[in-house]
Amino acid sequence: MTSAGSGLTVWQTCALSLLVFTGASQFALVGALAAGGNPLTAAAGAFFLGVRNAFYGLRLSQLLALPRAVRPFAAQWVIDETTAVSLAQRDRRGARIGFAVTGLSLYVLWNLTTLLGALGAEAIGDTDAWGLDAAGPAVFLALLAPMLKTTTERVAAGLAVLLGLGLLPVLPGGVPVLVAALAAPLALWAEGRREGRARGDAKEERR
Amino acid sequence: MNVWIAIGATAIGCYAVKLTGLLVPAGVLERPLVRRLAALLPVALLAALTAQQTFADGQTLVLDARAAGLAAAAVALILRAPFLLVVAAAVAVTAGVRAVGG
């Protein structure tokens, strides 16, 4: 629905859900396109959001021990939810069933709601008047909030906001978000320094 | 047409990344630093995107009804409201502020 609200057709919206099937990346792509970003930088931003799925895949491949021939088919369902369900199971059989059931039901539901949402948005017309353009950032915020557990994550988020907004007027669309990704290594570096100092203090006290 | 290029590039990239995770031998991505970085990258990206979608109009920064909507979403999150309610709060408040003339 957010997608149709930002100028994509029903077909484009549905293709996105069928082919990409990673919520955060889809929203990111649509958001960047709506903000006037060029298609390749928009795709790059969406791609980086999808990178975490590689780390899920790594854990899942040990857990599920899928035959090589099945992996290319299973890959499309490697997302937050299927990983969470699979990791919660006690044995391999449970994990495999959990992965397949979660993957299939989410895939069907996600694409059905996308179609309904896209058709609905077309019927509604001017989505801005209904405040639907605020749905995108609200979804991001809801995804982001549970991730902000420690100082390091908060530092990374804060820095990224500053970089993203500060560079927006001066760099072409889509690029500020990529630069804002630098907040992650910067926050890690700051964490390293903090820990180094804490260790130094502890040594001082012992003396 | 441009939109289709973006959709195609994203679809291929996201699928490749998912498959890589399943095929890459363990150990390579097991290093703690790589792991921490991978966990932090989405945080930074989501934060920047949230801010931009709230305060950006094209390439200029603006303060409009969307900011009120996001604030409502933040309050809903602090009150531990379920996901859909958080989004609904943002949408409703934004529409409300616009209707009043914000």
Account of the protein in words:
The complex is a heterodimer of chains A (207) and B (102). Chain A is an all-alpha fold. Chain A folds into two domains: 2-132, no CATH class; 148-207. Helix content of chain A is 74%, strand content 0%. In chain A, helix 5 packs parallel to helix 7. Chain A starts with a helix and ends with a helix. The radius of gyration of chain B is 19 Å and the shape is extended. Chain B starts with a helix and ends with a helix. Helix content of chain B is 76%, strand content 4%. Chain B has four helices and two strands; from the N terminus they run H-H-E-E-H-H. Chain B has a two-stranded antiparallel sheet with strand order 1-2. At the A-B interface, helix 2, helix 3, helix 4, helix 5 and helix 6 of A face helix 1, helix 2, strand 2, helix 3 and helix 4 of B. Chain B: Pfam families: AzlD. Chain B: The chain crosses the membrane at residues 6-25, 37-55, 67-97. Chain B: Keywords: Membrane, Transmembrane, Transmembrane helix. Chain B: This is AzlD domain-containing protein.
Low-confidence stretches of chain B: none
Biggest sheet descriptor of chain A: none
Shape field of chain A: flat
The biggest chain-chain interface is: A-B, 94 and 69 residues
| Beta-strand content estimate of chain B | under 5%
Transmembrane segments (chain B): 6-25, 37-55, 67-97
InterPro entries (chain B): Brnchd-chn_aa_trnsp_AzlD
Keywords (chain B): Membrane, Transmembrane, Transmembrane helix
Organism (chain B): Streptomyces galilaeus
Describe the protein's topology.
The complex is a heterodimer of chains A (207) and B (102).
Chain A: H1 2-5, H2 10-19, H3 23-34, H4 39-50, H5 52-64, H6 71-74, H7 80-87, H8 92-124, H9 135-144, H10 151-167, H11 175-180, H12 183-206
Chain B: H1 2-23, H2 32-55, E1 56-57, E2 60-61, H3 65-78, H4 83-100
Antiparallel strand pairs in B: 1-2
Descriptive terms for the model:
heterodimer, A: about 210 residues, mainly alpha, 12 helices, flat, B: about 100 residues, two-stranded antiparallel sheet, 2 strands, about 5% strand, transmembrane helix (chain B), membrane (chain B)
